[in-house]
Amino acid sequence: TVLDYSPVLIAFVTSMTFASRLLQVYFRNIDLHMLYHHIATPEFIRSSMLRRYLYLLKGDLLTAVGMVVNLLLMLFVAGLSLPADTVVKLAAVCIAFLLFWETYEFIVYYIVQPYSVDMTAKSPVFKALGYLESLFYLLVLFVRRDLTAALPWVCAAAGASVLVFFVSRKIAPRTFRLR
Predict the structure, then answer these.
(1) What is the C-alpha separation between 24 and 19, in angstroms, rounded?
(2) What's residue 6's pLDDT?
(3) Minimal CA–CA distance to 87: which of 147, 158, 139, 141?
(4) d(CA 141, CA 135)
(5) Is the pLDDT of residue 16 over 90?
(6) Distance of CA 37 to the CA centre of its chain
(7) Which residue, 36, 58, 100, 179, could crosslink 122 as a Cys pair with Cβ 3.0–4.6 Å?
(8) Which residues, including other chains, have CB under 8 Å from residue 3's CB and lie 6 or more apart?
(9) Which residues, listed in sequence order, are joined to residue 115 by a DSSP beta bridge?
(10) Which residues pair with 121 in a beta bridge?
């Protein structure tokens, strides 16, 4: 059934995230210069972190709508029908996973601060996280289960990541610096 291939939808969701690329643009065009010239104050870091996160979530609303439309289109083209509550649960899993993943990218950017002046990833923690992310992609792609059963867990993970994001705003001024 379609639900057996819901991990493919999750892989699709992670490929649609643009937080890492957006944060690279921010680093290259704003943060690098602010950090290099010691202009980035703790207040600036905290406020820009929140403003950028809210901007990203606003953009993710469009992504979430696109995911739901893609899901409905996939069901329509395949000539399949699912109960409405199942479609809503599957869409909720994808949206919660999108929220989790985008928040994770922000936390990594501000806490690990992976980039150096020459835009290369110098942090060994960032490289290790990259390997773990790749393993996670493979795991998700090869699990053939109905992921709607994971809705409470994915929502809990998304909620926890948002809480960690707000906690990380307090320590980001100490960790967000040039390597």
Answers:
(1) 8
(2) 60
(3) 147
(4) 10
(5) no
(6) 29
(7) 179
(8) 82, 86, 90, 146, 147, 148
(9) 121
(10) 115
Distance CA 35, CA 45 (A): 10
| Structure-block tokens of residue 112 | 């690990």
* pLDDT tier at 141, thresholds 50, 70, 90: low
Long-range own/partner contacts, residues 71-78 (CB < 8 A, 24 or more apart): 71/9, 74/2, 75/2, 78/2
Task: Give the integer Cα–Cα distance in Å for 44 and 69.
Answer: 38
Q: What's at 102, amino acid-wise? A: E
Q: What is the token pair recorded at 73?
A: 């289109």
- Indicate yes or no: pTM above 0.85: no
| Encoded amino acid at 166, one letter | F
Residue with tokens 């709607």: 148
